[in-house]
Queue: 3 jobs
Job 1
Amino acid sequence: MPVFKAFFKTIKVRFLSIVTYFIIFLIFGSMSANSSRTAMEEKFQEEKLSIYVVDEEESPLTKALIESLSKDEKVDVETGKKWTEQKEFQKKVNDNVRFFYSYALILSKGFSERHTYQFIMEHDGVGGYVINQKVDAFLKSYEIYLEAGMEEAEALQMTQRTLGEIGESQIELTGENKQSDSRGSLYSFFSFLPYSLGMLMCIGIGLVLAELAGDCLSLRIQASAMSFLKNKMEIIGAMLVYGLATLLILLLIIFLQSLGDPDLWKAGYYILNSLFLLLFSLALSYFLSSLTKDNGIINMVSNMLTLGMSFTCGVFVPLEYLGDGVIKGAHFLPYYWYIRACEIVNQAKGSQIFSGDYLICLLILTLFAVVFLVAGMIAGKVKESHS
């Protein structure tokens, strides 16, 4: 297997460059995964609202209500003030809401009898509506217990207990019932894969094939007893071995860094998608090697192609941050369909992943691979005819 051995001997010369791209994948993939993990944690972290309460009545009901709100929000209480009689105090409360608080709750005299209250909240403040719902729920529960014949103290105690239990309840989505647009570390690593895999194929296979096609080495191979078919089969075998070994190392990095990811059960779908990406990357590297024997040109063009597609297809920048025009143009590029398949795997339930949309993405990746492979064969034939 002289050609097969020659292929990997030439690869050894570029060992440092290959290792560099593995390190780039590890560093930047980890950074992307960590930022996604932090964003997910912050997304589901409850935010406490700052509330300013004016308690004129200072009754058991107002104290119980304030205590209930204090469990979930930051509450500051002002007592000993008469809201209706002090214009300066009203201005102070308004200023507090404008600059320091999200919401002000005014519990005036007679609140225990009428169960009505005043409030001031930020303009278009969604949090204020949430507080109103909490106050209304407290009062409604209290009234229900009173109508059931309970004493005021017992009704307040039951109201606090009931609302406390509701506040502590949690809903957890697990397994196949989970569907989320949030991105875990597994998605982050696989979405960064096109750039690293593309460059590793181009600087490995592309440059090596260009050297094997050089005038001196090419003539030596033709002068040997090796048939044309065996020569091509050994080259194809070497390409597949190098490509699969490279992908295996990248997958090993991904899984070591993604242990504990709740979406780990979707790994098979991500791997299948990456295999089709590998087919395209092999075809691209073959195409570039068939255009020229100049290593500098192959390096430059491969960087331009992989970087350009990475920036416009969602590899470096998520698709939702790209403009409509950019996304429309990205439909004509292979990396877009790889990222689109990753999005489908990330968002869909287990039974829905292997759907028409996912299979269409894999089919389009295959078509791109075939196009570049055929283009490389045509370019090679044209070069042979002119030599």
Job 2
Amino acid sequence: MSTYGFAILKLVVTIVAALSAGAGQDSRSIDDPGDLAEQAVKANPSLASMVKQIQSLGQKAEAAVKWNDPVISVEYSNVPWDTWSLGDSAMSGILVKLAQKITLPGKNELRKATYEAAQRVRSLALDEARNQLVASVHAIYWRLTLVRNLRNITGRHVLLVKQLEESARAKYTVGSIGQHDVMNLQVARHRLEDDLEDYDQQDSVLTAELNEALHRDVTTVIRTPQEFPDVENMTRMLRMLPPDRDLLNSARVNRPLLRLMREQAKEHRIRAKQVAYERWPDFTVWAGYRFRAQAGIDGGTDFFSLGLSVPIPFDYTSRSSHDSESQDLLAEARVLGASSIADKIAAQIQVHLSTMKRAAGKIESYESRLIPEAQRTLEMTLAAYQADRADFATLFRAELRLLDFERTVEKAHSSFLVNAAKLEAVVGSKLFGSNIVQEKKP
């Protein structure tokens, strides 16, 4: 067999193998994104830090209702400076004094309520952080799957282009094509090989980001599926969704961020009441016993005393009223902010839904029509090329078209699943089943 004939035969074998590539992967060796998200929620140190802050607020709430410790003081007073003797002056004595600060009724309860409100706000912030972390883990996982699948597709097409290049060189030696055709293939191969390096770099970045969320070594291997779920599974996911209005109503009830804003408004109202009451100062009661010694005609009778002290709040009333009004205004701001967020959520629901529907439609169109047609076109063009009934440029365009279509459908798969994860985060509740990772039907 001539060199030219051997190159053509090798090219046919390579293309047929590439078109049938994509063998199934043992699903048991795949890291499930739901399991990874659950691990991230348990292991992420930022969430653990928020838990400790919530517990700290709980301790402050308990401490707020406790009275201050009493104060005891002992005073050796009014003795002559030159003798330091109690019996030398009727004014001398040893004073033992016990004082207790008394908080106005209801003030400690308001202080506790303020800490409890702050605790509820922080707890909802924790829920929202968990919600966003789960969505982030899913999104990174599917972007990582996309990068690896694009790399696999590109790697297969690098082999195709190499064989095309060998065939072109064989034809060039017999004068069937020009040198520029060979150079075009060489440039295309170099471009695809450069893309492979980009995919390797993106794989490292996404793997590190996912492991960071999981709080483990950033180089830990993440096992992703070789193929995205079947389009029928995605269509089923869309059918599972309730109507748009129900999604919005669910978000208003379940989304931690909206509940957080409403709880912040309540917190500010409680703080307004507390600030208004704090302008009334606490008072201190005390009792003292003065031990005395006989001094001259003074028999040295001991003295007993009771007292009450109250701070004088100069200009404090005006200041507290402004502080209280400030808290009321902040409460109104939180209510308006929650309304604005609800509008954004409604828009985000439509964005994610429309993106998912378009992605599912694109997958259906490409997998059922465009890619099979592109594959048949490449096979037919190859047959015609062997018989010298098709030129090199036509064959080259057929190969690039198939590469573009395969990349497009992979991106549509990833877009669908990333937006599905974001939709769940927007609504604040689980919308789809956990068994999403599965191989395509043969």
Job 3
Amino acid sequence: MIEVPAPLQEILVTQSEKNGEPIIRDIPVELRCTSDQFGEATFLIYWPHGHKMHMLAPSKFRTGNA
């Protein structure tokens, strides 16, 4: 999992509210997003209490250890 950058976190939270799919802390959540530019995408989000939001992503996108 990688730490979600703040601008992406804002997009994911907005999308979850729009879809009526809440991001529940301490529980992995599958979030579906749709846009004209990128089509349909699914993200596995994990937001533990006391930490920043994380998401499942290929290791090539990791820049450090979360």
